[in-house]
Amino acid sequence: METRRVVVVSGGMGTPSSSRMLADQLGEATRRELERADVHTDVTTIVLRELAVDIANNLVTGFAPPALADALKSVAEADALIVVSPVFSGSYSGLLKSFFDVLDNTALESMPVLIAATGGSVRHSLMLEHAMRPLFIYLRARVVSTAVYAGPEDWGTGSRGADALEQRVTRAAGELAGMVEGTAAVRRRQRPEASLPFEELLAQVQGR
């Protein structure tokens, strides 16, 4: 049975982080939805807080340190992506934007993406539609219809807010799982063959 790879990117800055909690909840819900359809699933979580220095160095030098390079490769090779950001000044975090700035701008083409955010007020939920969704549409990803926002009222165990959050998570995870099948094969066909190192290309040109 072929394994589908789901990568979860958490842009939370704190420890503990509500963004990480929501990321874990969405990753597990997506795994359940896919395995309910007999699709074996591997879920990998990338915590951007741990890569902050590497991301900054990449922006300055143009080269990704090994840990960041592995994270970027995981995202590019995923069958689906879940991205969770805290809300800062009415938008997603600068760290999250910087991570996707150093990712190849064709890496997410046709990839199913679920977007989510956490914040201190329900008013901040609009960020998902006016800021975060346009980012991934620009990157030519396929963004699921249901975006998930979690505020302070959504974290009380057994509360009405927590139940409503679980419903939103399940609905969004189901939409993402539904996109995964049929998309993986398309993305494999679209991926270009690995190019030769520059030195080998130069040697070929000089040898003509």
TrEMBL record:
Residues of the NADPH-dependent FMN reductase-like domain: 5-154
UniProt keyword Transcription regulation present: no
GO molecular function, one term: oxidoreductase activity
InterPro entries membership: CE1759_FMN_reduct, Flavoprotein-like_sf, FMN_Rdtase-like_dom, NAD(P)H-dep_FMN_reductase
Pfam families: FMN_red
Keywords: Flavoprotein, FMN, Oxidoreductase
Classification via PANTHER family: FMN REDUCTASE (NADPH) (PTHR43408:SF2)
Protein name according to UniProt: FMN reductase
Organism: Arthrobacter subterraneus
